[in-house]
Amino acid sequence: MRNILFGLMMAICGMMISCDVEPEPINFGTDVCTHCKMAIMDNKFGAEIVSVKGKIFKFDATECMVDFIKEKPDLNVEVSKLLTINIASPGTLINAREAIFLKDKAFRSPMGANLASFHHRQLAENNRQNADAKIFTWNELIQHRQINLALNEK
How do residues 8-35 score in pLDDT, each as one tens digit? Predict the structure, then answer.
C-alpha cells in the first residue's frame, strides 16, 4: 500500500513540475517564422510566444510577432510568455513586456521595421544613432503599431 501511495505522489509531483511551460531556444537557420514562414537566420532579432499549454510560436523579428498578434485577434491563446531577443546579447530571449524597443534605421531587422529590443532603457538610449529614432515600451509599441491585443494574457 505504501508503494502505491508513494508512486501516486511521485506521479502527481512529476505532473506539477512538467506543467511549468518554458520557452525553447530559437534554432537559427533551422526554425521558421510562424508569421511570415521565412527561416529565422539572424540571432540579433527574433521573438517567441509561449502559450499556457506549452505551444511555442517562433518569429524572425519582434515586428513579425506583433503583426501575428494583430492579424489573429481570434487566436484565443492563453499567453504564458511574450519574449524578444535582446540585441545586446544575441540569441538571448527576454520578457517582451519588460523590454525597451528602439526603432532606428541603424538596426536592420529582418522584416524592415528597424526594431531592436533591449533589456534596459539606458542601453536603447545609448544605441540611438539617428535623430528620428524612437524608443518604445511594449505597450507603446503595441499602440504605435495600432494593435488591439485580444490575447488572453496570463
Answer: 455 454 444 445 688 999 999 999 999 9
Rounded distance between C-alpha atoms, residue 77 and residue 111, angstroms = 24
> Considering the entire predicted model, what is its pTM?
0.79
Nearest to 114 by CA among 135, 95, 142: 135
Let me know: does 144 contact 136? Beta carbons within 8 Å: yes
The three three-digit cell numbers of residue 24, written as one number? 525553447
SS (HEC) of 36-100: CCCECCCCCCCEEEEECCCCEEEECCHHHHHHHHHHCCCCCCEEEEEEEEECCCCCCEEECCCCE
Domain locations along the chain? 22-153
Model confidence over 82-113: pLDDT tens digits? 999 999 999 999 999 999 999 999 899 888 88
